[in-house]
Hints:
By secondary structure, the protein is mostly beta strands. It has a single domain (13-254), classed as Porin. The protein is built from 1 helix and 13 strands, in the order H-E-E-E-E-E-E-E-E-E-E-E-E-E. The chain has a 12-stranded antiparallel barrel. A hairpin with a 6-residue loop joins strand 3 and strand 4 (98-101). It is globular, with a radius of gyration of 17 Å. The two termini are 21 Å apart.
Amino acid sequence: MGYLRRALGPGGWLPLATLVLLLASPALAGRPLTTEDTGTLDPGKVELELGVDYSRDGSAEAWLLPHGPSLNVGLLPRVEVTIGTAFILLSPEREPPRAGFGDSLVGLKGRFLDEGPATPALLAAVTVRLPTGDQGRGLGEKEVDIQALAVASKMFGPVTLTANAGYTFVTRDRDRDVVNLNASVEVGVTRAWSVVGEVVSALTTNHRSDHHVVLRAGTVYALSERVRLDAAVGFGVTRASPDALLTVGVTITFG
C-alpha cells in the first residue's frame, strides 16, 4: 500500500516497476484504492490483503503476482500498523524480462479525531519504503523514502468523501521529493456492494520531472463480514504516468 511511493523518475522501465508497486494499491489504503482512508482496525484484529496488479507504459509492462501479502494489524485503539511487499514481473522495452521481490512498505497510522455530525474524521499516517528489491535488476530503488500524510473523511448518507495531503522525502535524491494530493469517493449501493473512484497525484518539487496523476474507478463486494473482493481500473493523465493500471484482489479479516 500507497506509496513512497511516489518518488519516481521520468520514463523508462525502472520507474514503471516502482509505479505499479506504489500506485496500484498502497500499503496503508484500503483496496482497491491508493487514497488513504481514516479507518483503523480494532486492537488485535488482522487484515490480509492479496491481489494481482498490472501496469502498462508504452510497450513496457509490469505485473505484481501477487501484490502482497500485506498485513494490517490493529495495535491500539485508533492505531494501525501495516507491512507489505510484492513479487514483480517486468517486461521492459528493449530489455529481457525479469522477476523478483520488490521493495517493501512499512506504515503506521493513527486517527486523532473521530467523525462528528459537522466535522470530518482526521488521521495522520507515515509510510517508509525499504530497499528490499534488487536495484540492479530494476526491481527496487536504493535507500529509503518517507511519506507523511494527513487524511480527512466525511460521510454524507451512503457517500464517503476522503482527501489526502502529504509529502514524500526521497533520501537518495531530494530533488525527487513529491507533494501527494489524493481524493476519493465511495458510494454504498447495497449493504454488500459499493463503487469507488479516486484521483491520485504525485507532484514534483523541481522543474526537471513531470507530475504523476492517475484516475481510477472500481468496486468492492463483501462476501461476508470477513471477506471482501475488489477490482479497479485506472489510467494516467500526464506524460510521466503509466498508460493503464488494473488491480483485482481480496481482503480477509481475522480476529
